[in-house]
Amino acid sequence: MDTIARARTLIDLGRHDQAKAELAKALADDPASTEAWCLLAQCEQKTGDIKAMLHASTQALASNPDSEWGHRLQALAQHKLGWHADAVRTAREAVRLAPNQWQQYVVLVTAMMPLKQFHGEAALAADRAVELAPLQSETHLTRGVLLGSMGNLVAAERNYREALRLDPENAAARNNLATIELRGNKLEAATAGFAAALAENPRLQVARDNIDLVCRRVLRSTRLAAQMVFVGVALVAITYEGGRTFPEVVAGLLVLMWLVMVGRLLGRLAKPVRAHLYSILRNDRRFLPTTLATVVFIGAALAAAWMPILLLGIGIAATFAYFVSDRLRRGSTA
């Protein structure tokens, strides 16, 4: 097996550092090897070094200006660096050089997506990619992403599902489908999708971010519900002129309703997401203000029947403390 063949095998296995070492040997023997430069650009893309990816793809084009692969990789690097107009020009050149390869159209759609004036042309390119490769998961994923960015979520969902039918391990398609399900309040399906996407591709940061987003929403919902429970109990305790029994019963019922709501909300989370939520409650100080505020509000609601005026003040203080600590947290993580 020659050096470039070994590099290809290592890339397929995800051993990119070893692949780079093999490609360095190949380029030392033949500095003008377009294939070696393109493979190196592919390695840099996988490891997230986009500037190095741009350099390698530029070297590939220097050795062979008519390399459609080199243009495709350079367009992706330019897109990731935010050079969108350059990316569109480079991707168009890739299409010109190889008009019957679906990969060129996928890159062209990706390059055009941030520029709304190109969405009409991008839609045609996405359709062409699917026409050329209807059994390729990536073509349906790309068209789904484009349609989603244009606001057509129904068509986007249909494309994501087709991408997953063709490739059940397509982590990006699974994550994007879960995002649509989250918008539709399908919490259990959405969190299961995010967890599955992360399991399929642990480097998929967007899936990790989406799981954190769900956890933040759950904690915020429980805190707001606890605050509403406290306010309801405090109002009854302050305005009711009879004995303490009625406010105590109201407090107990409202807290019970809160516990049922929290239990049902947690039950709708996929098991890995629920475990992640418990983990961040123990270990992540960013969520401390919300957690403390929730505990204070529920504790105050239970005691409000006995000490309404004092605990109204505690509730107000807890609200103020939450917003102050949350503002400080946001400032420290900005």
Notable characteristics:
81% helix; Serine Threonine Protein Phosphatase 5, Tetratricopeptide repeat; 17 helices; 0% strand
Overall geometric form: elongated
* C-alpha end-to-end distance: 50 Å
Tally of alpha and pi helices: 17
SS-based structural class? mainly alpha
- Largest sheet properties: none
Q: State which percent range the strand residues make up.
A: under 5%
| Poorly predicted parts | none
Number of strands: 0
Order of helices and strands: HHHHHHHHHHHHHHHHH
- As a whole number of angstroms, the C-alpha radius of gyration is 27 Å
The share of residues in helices is over 70%
Mean pLDDT: 85
Helices and strands, with pairings:
Blueprint: H1 3-12, H2 16-29, H3 34-47, H4 50-63, H5 68-80, H6 84-97, H7 102-112, H8 119-132, H9 137-149, H10 153-166, H11 171-183, H12 187-200, H13 205-239, H14 245-267, H15 271-283, H16 288-303, H17 308-333
Helix pairs in contact: 1-2, 1-3, 2-3, 3-4, 3-5, 4-5, 5-6, 5-7, 6-7, 7-8, 7-9, 8-9, 9-10, 10-11, 11-12, 12-13, 13-14, 13-15, 13-16, 13-17, 14-16, 16-17
